[in-house]
Amino acid sequence: RRERQRFVDKNGRCNVQHGNLGGESSRYLSDLFTTLVDLKWRWNLLIFLLTYTVAWLVMASMWWGIAYLRGDLHRAHDDAYSPCVANVYNFPSAFLFFIETEATIGYGHRYITERCPEGIVLFLFQSLLGSIVDAFLIGCMFIKMSQPKKRAETLMFSHAAVVSQRDGKLCLMFRVGNLRNSHMVSAQIRCKLIKSRQTPEGEFLPLDQCELDVGFGTGADQLFLVSPLTICHEINSKSPFFCLSQRSLRSEQFEIVVILEGIVETTGMTCQARTSYTEDEVLWGHRFLPVMSLEDGFFRVDYSQFHATFEVPTPPYSVKE
Protein backbone atom coordinates (compact mmCIF):
# COMPACT_ATOMS: atom_id res chain seq x y z
CA ARG A 1 0.00 0.00 0.00
CA ARG A 2 1.32 3.43 -0.86
CA GLU A 3 2.25 5.69 2.02
CA ARG A 4 -0.58 8.06 2.83
CA GLN A 5 -0.43 11.57 4.26
CA ARG A 6 0.60 11.66 7.91
CA PHE A 7 -0.59 14.00 10.62
CA VAL A 8 2.77 13.62 12.41
CA ASP A 9 5.93 12.45 10.62
CA LYS A 10 8.18 9.75 12.01
CA ASN A 11 10.67 12.43 13.07
CA GLY A 12 7.97 14.24 15.07
CA ARG A 13 7.26 17.12 12.69
CA CYS A 14 3.57 18.03 12.52
CA ASN A 15 2.21 18.35 8.97
CA VAL A 16 -0.07 21.27 9.71
CA GLN A 17 0.09 24.62 7.93
CA HIS A 18 -1.93 27.66 8.97
CA GLY A 19 -3.38 29.73 6.14
CA ASN A 20 -5.78 32.62 5.58
CA LEU A 21 -5.05 34.10 8.99
CA GLY A 22 -6.16 37.55 7.92
CA GLY A 23 -5.82 40.04 10.75
CA GLU A 24 -4.74 37.30 13.13
CA SER A 25 -1.24 37.41 11.64
CA SER A 26 -0.62 40.53 13.73
CA ARG A 27 -0.44 38.25 16.77
CA TYR A 28 2.97 37.11 15.55
CA LEU A 29 4.28 40.68 15.82
CA SER A 30 2.78 41.14 19.27
CA ASP A 31 4.96 38.23 20.41
CA LEU A 32 8.01 39.14 18.35
CA PHE A 33 10.54 37.43 20.63
CA THR A 34 8.87 34.00 20.32
CA THR A 35 8.43 34.56 16.58
CA LEU A 36 12.18 35.11 16.17
CA VAL A 37 13.02 32.08 18.29
CA ASP A 38 10.71 29.87 16.18
CA LEU A 39 12.33 30.96 12.90
CA LYS A 40 14.88 28.77 11.17
CA TRP A 41 18.56 29.40 11.83
CA ARG A 42 19.23 30.99 8.44
CA TRP A 43 16.53 33.62 9.01
CA ASN A 44 17.73 34.23 12.56
CA LEU A 45 21.28 34.87 11.38
CA LEU A 46 20.06 37.11 8.56
CA ILE A 47 17.94 39.23 10.93
CA PHE A 48 20.82 39.33 13.42
CA LEU A 49 23.28 40.64 10.81
CA LEU A 50 20.83 43.06 9.19
CA THR A 51 19.72 44.57 12.50
CA TYR A 52 23.24 45.30 13.66
CA THR A 53 24.38 46.50 10.23
CA VAL A 54 21.47 48.93 9.86
CA ALA A 55 21.77 50.15 13.46
CA TRP A 56 25.51 50.76 13.06
CA LEU A 57 25.12 52.64 9.80
CA VAL A 58 22.27 54.79 11.12
CA MET A 59 24.06 55.72 14.35
CA ALA A 60 27.34 56.39 12.52
CA SER A 61 25.43 58.64 10.11
CA MET A 62 24.00 60.58 13.04
CA TRP A 63 27.47 61.18 14.48
CA TRP A 64 28.71 62.21 11.05
CA GLY A 65 25.68 64.51 10.66
CA ILE A 66 26.44 66.31 13.94
CA ALA A 67 30.05 66.84 12.88
CA TYR A 68 28.93 68.06 9.44
CA LEU A 69 26.36 70.54 10.79
CA ARG A 70 28.80 71.95 13.31
CA GLY A 71 31.53 72.30 10.69
CA ASP A 72 33.87 69.94 12.54
CA LEU A 73 34.83 68.10 9.36
CA HIS A 74 36.52 71.14 7.90
CA ARG A 75 38.27 72.26 11.10
CA ALA A 76 39.13 68.88 12.58
CA HIS A 77 42.90 69.51 12.19
CA ASP A 78 42.73 72.94 13.83
CA ASP A 79 44.34 72.62 17.25
CA ALA A 80 42.65 75.79 18.51
CA TYR A 81 39.17 74.51 17.63
CA SER A 82 37.16 72.27 19.99
CA PRO A 83 35.01 69.88 17.92
CA CYS A 84 32.10 67.81 19.16
CA VAL A 85 34.08 64.58 18.72
CA ALA A 86 37.83 64.84 18.52
CA ASN A 87 39.59 63.36 15.49
CA VAL A 88 36.44 62.73 13.42
CA TYR A 89 37.28 63.83 9.86
CA ASN A 90 34.83 61.86 7.69
CA PHE A 91 32.24 59.10 7.72
CA PRO A 92 34.74 56.22 8.31
CA SER A 93 36.15 57.99 11.34
CA ALA A 94 32.61 58.66 12.63
CA PHE A 95 31.80 54.98 12.11
CA LEU A 96 34.93 53.93 14.00
CA PHE A 97 34.02 56.28 16.88
CA PHE A 98 30.56 54.70 17.09
CA ILE A 99 32.00 51.15 17.11
CA GLU A 100 34.56 52.09 19.78
CA THR A 101 31.80 53.57 21.92
CA GLU A 102 29.27 50.78 21.36
CA ALA A 103 31.79 48.01 22.02
CA THR A 104 33.31 49.96 24.98
CA ILE A 105 36.72 49.64 23.36
CA GLY A 106 37.73 53.26 23.88
CA TYR A 107 41.10 53.59 22.13
CA GLY A 108 41.37 57.15 23.44
CA HIS A 109 42.01 58.79 20.07
CA ARG A 110 38.39 59.81 19.48
CA TYR A 111 36.29 61.19 22.33
CA ILE A 112 33.37 63.57 23.02
CA THR A 113 34.19 67.05 24.25
CA GLU A 114 32.19 68.93 26.86
CA ARG A 115 31.15 71.67 24.40
CA CYS A 116 28.77 69.40 22.49
CA PRO A 117 25.41 68.94 24.29
CA GLU A 118 23.83 67.29 21.24
CA GLY A 119 26.65 64.75 21.21
CA ILE A 120 26.07 63.95 24.89
CA VAL A 121 22.35 63.39 24.23
CA LEU A 122 23.13 61.18 21.24
CA PHE A 123 25.65 59.24 23.32
CA LEU A 124 23.00 58.53 25.99
CA PHE A 125 20.49 57.49 23.31
CA GLN A 126 23.08 55.22 21.71
CA SER A 127 23.85 53.53 25.02
CA LEU A 128 20.18 52.84 25.75
CA LEU A 129 19.40 51.65 22.23
CA GLY A 130 22.48 49.43 22.13
CA SER A 131 21.55 47.78 25.43
CA ILE A 132 18.02 47.07 24.19
CA VAL A 133 19.18 45.63 20.85
CA ASP A 134 21.86 43.50 22.52
CA ALA A 135 19.47 42.13 25.12
CA PHE A 136 16.82 41.31 22.51
CA LEU A 137 18.96 39.72 19.80
CA ILE A 138 21.58 38.04 21.98
CA GLY A 139 18.82 36.73 24.26
CA CYS A 140 17.01 35.35 21.21
CA MET A 141 20.13 33.59 19.95
CA PHE A 142 20.92 32.18 23.39
CA ILE A 143 17.41 30.77 23.83
CA LYS A 144 17.51 29.25 20.35
CA MET A 145 20.89 27.61 20.96
CA SER A 146 19.78 26.19 24.31
CA GLN A 147 16.55 24.67 23.00
CA PRO A 148 16.40 20.93 23.74
CA LYS A 149 15.29 19.95 20.23
CA LYS A 150 18.57 18.17 19.52
CA ARG A 151 18.18 16.19 22.73
CA ALA A 152 14.96 14.73 21.31
CA GLU A 153 16.94 13.27 18.41
CA THR A 154 18.70 10.92 20.86
CA LEU A 155 15.35 9.46 21.95
CA MET A 156 14.45 6.48 19.75
CA PHE A 157 11.13 4.91 18.85
CA SER A 158 10.72 1.58 17.13
CA HIS A 159 9.93 1.77 13.43
CA ALA A 160 6.80 -0.35 13.90
CA ALA A 161 4.27 -1.19 16.59
CA VAL A 162 3.20 -4.77 17.27
CA VAL A 163 0.03 -6.51 18.41
CA SER A 164 0.43 -9.70 20.41
CA GLN A 165 -0.55 -11.27 23.70
CA ARG A 166 1.05 -10.38 27.01
CA ASP A 167 -0.10 -11.95 30.26
CA GLY A 168 -3.03 -13.49 28.41
CA LYS A 169 -4.28 -10.14 27.12
CA LEU A 170 -4.08 -8.72 23.60
CA CYS A 171 -1.86 -5.63 23.63
CA LEU A 172 -0.58 -2.97 21.26
CA MET A 173 3.11 -2.36 21.96
CA PHE A 174 6.01 -0.23 20.74
CA ARG A 175 9.51 0.41 22.01
CA VAL A 176 11.30 3.57 23.21
CA GLY A 177 14.96 4.09 24.06
CA ASN A 178 17.43 6.72 25.22
CA LEU A 179 20.79 6.82 23.42
CA ARG A 180 22.50 9.11 25.96
CA ASN A 181 23.85 8.22 29.38
CA SER A 182 22.18 11.32 30.84
CA HIS A 183 18.68 10.57 32.06
CA MET A 184 15.33 12.11 31.27
CA VAL A 185 13.90 13.26 34.59
CA SER A 186 10.14 12.76 35.13
CA ALA A 187 9.77 11.12 31.72
CA GLN A 188 6.13 10.56 30.76
CA ILE A 189 4.61 9.03 27.65
CA ARG A 190 1.20 9.63 26.07
CA CYS A 191 -0.54 8.22 23.01
CA LYS A 192 -3.22 9.71 20.80
CA LEU A 193 -5.30 7.86 18.21
CA ILE A 194 -5.95 10.10 15.20
CA LYS A 195 -8.91 8.84 13.20
CA SER A 196 -11.81 10.40 11.32
CA ARG A 197 -15.27 9.44 12.50
CA GLN A 198 -18.91 10.37 12.18
CA THR A 199 -21.11 10.99 15.21
CA PRO A 200 -24.63 9.49 15.57
CA GLU A 201 -25.95 12.98 14.80
CA GLY A 202 -24.27 12.92 11.40
CA GLU A 203 -21.39 15.30 12.24
CA PHE A 204 -18.11 14.38 10.54
CA LEU A 205 -15.03 14.81 12.73
CA PRO A 206 -11.82 14.81 10.65
CA LEU A 207 -8.70 13.76 12.53
CA ASP A 208 -10.56 13.16 15.77
CA GLN A 209 -8.19 12.60 18.70
CA CYS A 210 -8.74 9.80 21.19
CA GLU A 211 -6.51 8.97 24.17
CA LEU A 212 -4.87 5.53 24.36
CA ASP A 213 -4.32 4.26 27.87
CA VAL A 214 -0.68 3.28 28.36
CA GLY A 215 -0.87 2.90 32.12
CA PHE A 216 -2.28 6.10 33.57
CA GLY A 217 -3.97 4.35 36.47
CA THR A 218 -1.03 2.08 37.30
CA GLY A 219 1.74 4.65 36.78
CA ALA A 220 3.24 2.72 33.88
CA ASP A 221 3.25 5.95 31.83
CA GLN A 222 5.93 7.35 34.19
CA LEU A 223 9.15 6.00 32.68
CA PHE A 224 12.56 5.25 34.17
CA LEU A 225 14.26 5.46 30.80
CA VAL A 226 17.75 4.10 31.42
CA SER A 227 17.27 1.19 29.01
CA PRO A 228 14.86 0.51 26.12
CA LEU A 229 11.29 0.01 27.33
CA THR A 230 8.31 -1.60 25.64
CA ILE A 231 5.20 0.54 26.07
CA CYS A 232 2.01 -1.49 26.27
CA HIS A 233 -1.60 -0.53 25.57
CA GLU A 234 -4.03 -3.20 26.73
CA ILE A 235 -6.85 -3.72 24.23
CA ASN A 236 -10.02 -4.13 26.29
CA SER A 237 -13.63 -2.98 26.19
CA LYS A 238 -12.54 0.64 26.88
CA SER A 239 -9.94 0.65 24.11
CA PRO A 240 -10.74 2.14 20.68
CA PHE A 241 -9.20 -1.06 19.24
CA PHE A 242 -11.83 -3.27 20.93
CA CYS A 243 -13.20 -4.34 17.53
CA LEU A 244 -9.82 -4.49 15.74
CA SER A 245 -8.87 -7.84 14.26
CA GLN A 246 -6.10 -8.97 11.95
CA ARG A 247 -8.46 -8.85 8.97
CA SER A 248 -10.00 -5.45 9.78
CA LEU A 249 -6.53 -3.98 10.30
CA ARG A 250 -5.97 -4.16 6.54
CA SER A 251 -8.93 -1.88 5.83
CA GLU A 252 -8.55 0.56 8.73
CA GLN A 253 -7.14 4.07 8.43
CA PHE A 254 -5.73 5.55 11.64
CA GLU A 255 -2.58 7.05 13.08
CA ILE A 256 -1.14 6.58 16.55
CA VAL A 257 0.79 9.64 17.76
CA VAL A 258 3.29 8.98 20.55
CA ILE A 259 4.49 11.88 22.72
CA LEU A 260 7.41 11.43 25.12
CA GLU A 261 8.09 14.31 27.50
CA GLY A 262 10.70 14.79 30.17
CA ILE A 263 13.23 17.15 31.73
CA VAL A 264 16.79 17.09 30.41
CA GLU A 265 18.99 16.23 33.36
CA THR A 266 21.95 18.37 32.29
CA THR A 267 20.03 21.58 31.46
CA GLY A 268 16.77 21.30 33.39
CA MET A 269 14.75 22.18 30.28
CA THR A 270 11.64 20.32 29.18
CA CYS A 271 12.11 18.14 26.10
CA GLN A 272 9.46 16.52 23.92
CA ALA A 273 9.94 13.80 21.30
CA ARG A 274 7.18 12.63 18.96
CA THR A 275 6.57 9.94 16.39
CA SER A 276 3.60 8.19 14.81
CA TYR A 277 2.46 4.80 13.56
CA THR A 278 -0.02 4.31 10.74
CA GLU A 279 -2.02 1.14 10.23
CA ASP A 280 0.65 -0.10 7.80
CA GLU A 281 3.23 0.04 10.59
CA VAL A 282 1.26 -2.10 13.05
CA LEU A 283 2.41 -5.72 12.84
CA TRP A 284 -0.16 -8.27 14.00
CA GLY A 285 1.27 -11.32 15.74
CA HIS A 286 4.77 -9.96 16.32
CA ARG A 287 6.95 -9.31 19.36
CA PHE A 288 10.15 -7.30 19.85
CA LEU A 289 13.48 -9.06 20.12
CA PRO A 290 15.28 -8.69 23.47
CA VAL A 291 18.08 -6.13 23.47
CA MET A 292 19.35 -6.46 27.07
CA SER A 293 22.08 -8.86 28.10
CA LEU A 294 24.08 -9.27 31.30
CA GLU A 295 27.84 -9.05 30.89
CA ASP A 296 30.75 -8.75 33.30
CA GLY A 297 29.46 -6.32 35.92
CA PHE A 298 27.01 -4.37 33.75
CA PHE A 299 23.99 -4.63 31.48
CA ARG A 300 24.57 -4.22 27.76
CA VAL A 301 22.01 -2.83 25.31
CA ASP A 302 22.31 -4.00 21.70
CA TYR A 303 20.66 -1.25 19.65
CA SER A 304 21.18 -3.18 16.42
CA GLN A 305 18.14 -5.26 17.47
CA PHE A 306 16.11 -2.30 18.66
CA HIS A 307 13.64 -2.36 15.75
CA ALA A 308 13.71 -6.13 15.14
CA THR A 309 10.57 -8.23 15.67
CA PHE A 310 9.65 -11.88 15.32
CA GLU A 311 6.36 -13.67 14.79
CA VAL A 312 4.50 -15.31 17.67
CA PRO A 313 1.22 -17.26 17.72
CA THR A 314 -1.56 -14.70 18.14
CA PRO A 315 -5.32 -15.15 17.65
CA PRO A 316 -6.45 -13.24 14.53
CA TYR A 317 -9.71 -12.23 16.19
CA SER A 318 -10.60 -8.98 17.92
CA VAL A 319 -11.10 -8.79 21.68
CA LYS A 320 -14.80 -8.31 21.08
CA GLU A 321 -14.94 -11.51 19.06
From TrEMBL:
Listed InterPro entries: Ig_E-set (IPR014756), IRK_C (IPR041647), K_chnl_inward-rec_Kir (IPR016449), K_chnl_inward-rec_Kir3.1 (IPR003274), K_chnl_inward-rec_Kir_cyto (IPR013518), Kir_TM (IPR040445)
Gene Ontology, cellular component aspect: monoatomic ion channel complex; plasma membrane
Subcellular location: Membrane
Gene3D superfamilies assigned to the protein according to its UniProt record, in alphabetical order: 1.10.287.70, G protein-activated inward rectifier potassium channel 1
Residues marked Role in the control of polyamine-mediated channel gating and in the blocking by intracellular magnesium (site): D134
Transmembrane segments: 45-66, 120-143
Record field: catalytic activity: K(+)(in) = K(+)(out)
Domain Inward rectifier potassium channel C-terminal: start-end pairs: 155-320
Superkingdom of source: Eukaryota
UniProt membrane topology term: Multi-pass membrane protein
GO biological process, one term: regulation of monoatomic ion transmembrane transport
Keyword Transcription regulation set for record: no
Positions of the Potassium channel inwardly rectifying transmembrane domain: 8-148
Pfam families: IRK (PF01007), IRK_C (PF17655)
GO MF: G-protein activated inward rectifier potassium channel activity
Main location: membrane
Keywords carried by this UniProt record: Ion channel, Ion transport, Membrane, Potassium, Potassium transport, Transmembrane, Transmembrane helix, Transport, Voltage-gated channel
Signal peptide: none
PANTHER family in alphabetical order: G PROTEIN-ACTIVATED INWARD RECTIFIER POTASSIUM CHANNEL 1, INWARD RECTIFIER POTASSIUM CHANNEL
Protein family (similarity comment): Belongs to the inward rectifier-type potassium channel (TC 1.A.2.1) family. KCNJ3 subfamily.
Protein name per its UniProtKB record: G protein-activated inward rectifier potassium channel 1
Protein species of origin: Ibidorhyncha struthersii
